[in-house]
Write a structure and sequence with these properties.
A hairpin with a 5-residue loop joins strand 5 and strand 6. The chain contains 6 helices and 7 strands; from the N terminus they run E-H-H-E-E-H-E-H-E-E-H-E-H. It has 211 residues and is of the alpha/beta class. Helix 2 crosses helix 4. It has one domain: Spore Coat Polysaccharide Biosynthesis Protein SpsA, Chain A (Alpha-Beta Complex). The protein is globular. The longest helix is centred in the first third of the chain and has 22 residues.
Length: 211
């Protein structure tokens, strides 16, 4: 397969679908089974966006063994990796370092599976900005976090002492970048699906997504 940026790697962080362990805030409103089914849909969608973009090779980092063979339905086994224990920052930092260990890799893009409006163009814009000399790419999320982070080299300090899940994540990351003199490019602001209001917004903005 040919990629536009074969020296870049796209990391997808995905929770392995397990009843009661995914989309727990959303499950309060729609039930665990429906929330887990939704998690499967948005995870598959995100992986397929990354694959079909053909921007760069992908790695999918999951949280637990794929006992139900969910990921094997649409991914090659060699694509899968396991997230380490620790907070989100430690997990992302480790995955990014590991991706850079591959021969010839010069940049890494990391995304989660909570943003249904993420598109291939966002991945392409990120890869191009990195190739143009930017050190850090951020995809701001409306909730104060980010839906995408991309780097030209491992930068562990971007993941230290951050209150993950709070509205301060993006602001803190911007501050760290400024303190270290990083050249930053930001994408357009998008939104994640975390709770029931986001779920309804998705149903209205992308009819048919929820099935």
């Amino acid at each position: 397969m040919l990629y536009e940026y074969d020296r870049t790697r796209i990391i997808v962080f995905a929770k392995t679908p397990r009843l009661g362990h995914v989309k727990t805030r959303l499950a309060v409103a729609i039930g665990e089974e429906v929330a887990t089914d939704f998690h499967r849909k948005i995870t598959r969608h995100t992986c397929q966006v990354a694959l079909s973009s053909k921007v760069a090779p992908i790695q999918v980092w999951i949280t637990a063994p794929d006992e139900d063979e969910f990921f094997s339905e649409f991914l090659e086994p060699s694509t899968l990796r396991f997230q380490i224990n620790g907070d989100l920052g430690a997990k992302m930092d480790y995955a990014i370092h590991e991706a850079f260990q591959e021969c010839g890799v010069s940049s890494v893009i990391l995304i989660g599976c909570d943003c249904p409006v993420l598109a291939g163009r966002h991945l392409r814009e990120s890869a191009k900005a990195l190739a143009d000399g930017f050190d850090l790419i951020l995809g701001p999320a409306e909730d104060g976090g980010y839906f995408l982070i991309a780097v030209s080299e491992p930068v562990s300090y971007l993941f230290n002492d951050i209150r993950w899940g709070s509205g301060e994540v993006l602001t803190t990351t911007r501050r760290y970048a400024a303190e270290h003199g990083l050249r930053v490019h930001e994408l357009e602001t998008l939104w994640d699906v975390d709770d029931y209001s986001d779920y309804i917004r998705l149903d209205r903005s992308k009819p048919g997504f929820l099935g």
